[in-house]
């Protein structure tokens, strides 16, 4: 019965059970694969009623039970007794296996009947051996009934099987090996199969049996397969009497339809230990069926094509070819192209010929290189890819052109002037220009460099005197017609009229003179360079000014201070003030101060002192403030000075007026300094 008839599942709990009345047989099907489908209740999704499902595969492994009897393997059995055999010689070994392969029991072998007392069997190995001398045998053919019994855990016999072992007594080696088919002896065997079978697969289409009717060593031979190396192998390689021949795939790559639709082998059976070395040969022929096992392969990984520009639409570019060795529709190739550069091209789907689109116009000056991909695909979608590179060949379709047909030039004697033409063609030699002088006025006065277009005077024209002698005019303006011709085929040319004003070199020297000389024919370029230099200088000046302004603003910043902290300046010379002690006898003497250091002690009491000129005040000490670590302390303005008298002698009456004027000046200076100090202190605090 089918799998669905053996299992049932609970629709709600999902429990999988064996259907009542059904049984599972390990020997028939040891493993079952059950696909379970889970469905929801359904509902609307995107306006439609849908039921969502999911599937799972359940693998059911069946455990073996003791319900099968043992069975013999390799029946029918044939054994042989030879004239040279001795008691104890092995005749044949039978083999039986428990039908319950999952948990097999040991097998016990025994002879039921037919031994006639001349044969015995090993109960464990199943080996039948001769128990007497061959001369004691009365029959040429014996049929021995052998029993194979299962032995339970307690050595009790269980199920059993009985087979017949035919034993033939052989006297002479008079039978060669023989191959048999389903209908008797056969020397040629054929089979049809698909190419590339997996390695290790048995070619079951062959039904081959080999037999040697001799007995003993005369019936022992080897099997060998002769043909393409290591493609197939034969089992068994050594046969005694008779065996079923099995042919197995060893190297699947050798079974390839594209290499050959047929394979031929020779099957040999050669006796081993007989003097006669009898043998037999059978032909093995394999007819292969093709499969789509190959992809189309291009003849090259990339193709290079060259197309002249301005070619008409539909022009051939290149033909690509891909080969698929498969037969029939599998070997038919279809071509397509794709890629960023493929829009201008088309390909024939069968021939692989690439052409330009009907509306395509290739221009080497616009774009000279194209690349795209071409795809070769068979009927089942197997494909390969190659890349195509297309170069557009430049044609000479542009003549040289001067900027102006009439040009004005200034030539300094000894220095050339240059004319230039441009050819828009893409490649050499179409865009290579040669210059020549067609006509000149005066004649034979100029030379031109054919490659660069530089025009210069003949070597003998070295001064304005020679020029004026040639022209007989004062303006010294000559003209010539210059031709520019490309090197393409066919060649194109154009002309320009050049008016040249001849002058002598200026006495200017240095780099500025050289610059002006070079720029005489292009004043706009010179003006642009000068403007650029001026802008650079202005920019540098603005940058330096900005940096200085920021620095001064930072250094002049005044921070508010709530209290005065008297702190001496670091690493600064101490300010020393020498204030003399003055005793005044009259009010007018307050402006006459003696220097106690410079005046002798005996002269300090003089009523009339010589006035001294005022001394300029020194810098004041710094005010208390927040002093930064990397800044020097600022000085606070103050008054410092010493008013002394250099002479204690009585002043002359003529100098009295001068002393009064000096004293008044000192007083006024002192008042102004004190006022300035107060204003500064208010600003600091």
UniProtKB/TrEMBL annotation:
SUPFAM superfamilies linked to this entry: Cadherin-like
Source organism superkingdom: Eukaryota
Localisation per UniProt entry: Membrane
Keyword Repeat recorded: yes
Region (Disordered): 593-659
InterPro entries associated with the record: Cadherin-like_dom (IPR002126), Cadherin-like_sf (IPR015919), Cadherin_CS (IPR020894)
Database matches in PROSITE patterns: CADHERIN_1, CADHERIN_2
Pfam families for the chain: Cadherin (PF00028)
Keyword Transmembrane helix (UniProt): yes
Skewed-composition ranges (Pro residues): 610-625
Domain Cadherin: 7-72, 73-179, 185-298, 299-402, 394-513
Extent of Polar residues compositional bias: 596-607
Keyword annotations from UniProtKB, A to Z: Calcium, Membrane, Repeat, Transmembrane, Transmembrane helix
Membrane-spanning parts: 526-549
Protein name: Cadherin- member 1
Organism: Characodon lateralis
Upper taxonomic lineage: Eukaryota, Metazoa, Chordata, Craniata, Vertebrata
The gene coding this protein: CDHR1_2
């Amino acid at each position: 019965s089918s799998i669905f008839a053996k299992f049932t599942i609970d629709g709600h709990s999902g429990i999988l059970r064996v259907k009542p009345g059904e049984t599972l047989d390990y020997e028939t099907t040891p493993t079952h694969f059950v696909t379970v489908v889970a469905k929801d209740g359904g509902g609307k999704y995107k306006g439609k009623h849908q039921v969502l499902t999911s599937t799972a595969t359940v693998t059911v492994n069946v455990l073996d039970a003791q319900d099968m009897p043992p069975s013999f393997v390799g029946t029918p059995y044939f054994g042989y007794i030879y004239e040279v055999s001795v008691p104890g010689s092995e005749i044949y070994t039978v083999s039986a296996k428990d039908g319950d392969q999952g948990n097999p029991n040991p097998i016990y072998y025994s002879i039921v009947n037919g031994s006639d007392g001349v044969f015995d069997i090993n109960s464990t190995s199943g080996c039948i051996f001769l128990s007497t001398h061959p001369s004691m045998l009365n029959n040429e053919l014996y049929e021995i009934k052998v029993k194979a019994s299962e032995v339970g855990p307690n050595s009790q016999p269980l199920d059993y099987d009985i087979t017949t072992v035919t034993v033939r007594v052989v006297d002479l080696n008079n039978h060669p090996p023989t191959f048999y088919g389903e209908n008797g002896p056969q020397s040629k065997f054929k089979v049809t199969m698909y190419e590339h079978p997996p390695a290790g697969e048995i070619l079951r289409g062959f039904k081959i049996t080999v037999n040697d009717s001799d007995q003993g060593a005369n019936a022992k031979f080897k099997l060998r397969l002769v043909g393409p190396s290591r493609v197939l192998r034969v089992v068994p390689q050594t046969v005694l009497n008779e065996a079923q021949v099995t042919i197995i795939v060893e190297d699947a790559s050798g079974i390839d339809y594209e290499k050959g639709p047929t394979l031929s082998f020779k099957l040999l059976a050669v006796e081993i230990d007989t003097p006669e070395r009898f043998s037999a040969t059978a032909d093995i022929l394999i007819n292969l069926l093709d499969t789509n096992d190959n992809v189309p392969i291009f003849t090259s990984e990339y193709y290079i094509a060259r197309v002249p520009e301005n070619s008409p639409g539909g022009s051939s570019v290149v033909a690509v070819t891909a080969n698929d060795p498969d037969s029939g529709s599998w070997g038919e190739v279809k071509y397509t192209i794709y890629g960023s550069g493929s829009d201008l091209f088309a390909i024939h789907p069968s021939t692989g010929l690439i052409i330009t689109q009907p509306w395509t116009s290739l221009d080497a000056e616009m774009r000279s290189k194209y690349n795209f991909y071409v795809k070769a695909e068979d009927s089942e979608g197997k494909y390969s890819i190659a890349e195509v590179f297309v170069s557009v060949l430049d044609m000479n379709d542009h003549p040289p052109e001067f900027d102006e047909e009439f040009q004005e030039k200034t030539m300094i004697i000894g220095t050339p002037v240059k004319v230039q033409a441009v050819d828009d063609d893409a490649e050499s030699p179409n865009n290579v220009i040669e210059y020549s002088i067609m006509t000149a006025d005066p004649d034979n006065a100029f030379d031109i460099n054919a490659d660069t277009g530089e025009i210069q005077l003949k070597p003998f024209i070295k001064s304005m005197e020679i020029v004026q002698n040639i022209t007989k005019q004062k303006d010294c303006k000559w003209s010539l017609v210059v031709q520019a011709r490309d090197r393409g085929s066919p060649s194109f040319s154009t002309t320009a009229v050049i008016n040249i004003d001849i002058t002598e070199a200026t006495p200017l020297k240095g780099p500025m003179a050289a610059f002006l000389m070079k720029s005489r024919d292009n004043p706009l370029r010179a003006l642009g360079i000068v403007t650029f230099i001026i802008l650079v200088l202005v920019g540098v000046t603005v940058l330096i000014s900005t940096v200085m302004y920021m620095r001064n603003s930072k250094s002049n910043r005044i921070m508010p201070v709530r209290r005065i902290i008297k702190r001496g300046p670091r690493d600064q010379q101490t300010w020393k003030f020498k204030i003399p002690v003055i005793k005044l006898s009259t009010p007018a003497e307050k402006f006459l101060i003696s220097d106690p250091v410079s005046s002798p002690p005996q002269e300090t009491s003089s009523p009339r002192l010589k006035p001294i000129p005022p001394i300029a005040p020194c810098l004041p000490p710094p005010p208390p403030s927040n002093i930064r670590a990397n800044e020097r302390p600022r000085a606070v303005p103050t008054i410092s000075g010493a008013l002394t008298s250099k002479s204690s002698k009585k002043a002359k009456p003529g100098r009295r007026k001068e002393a009064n004027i000096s004293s008044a000046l000192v007083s006024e200076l002192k008042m102004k300094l004190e006022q300035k100090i107060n204003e500064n202190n208010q600003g600091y605090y």
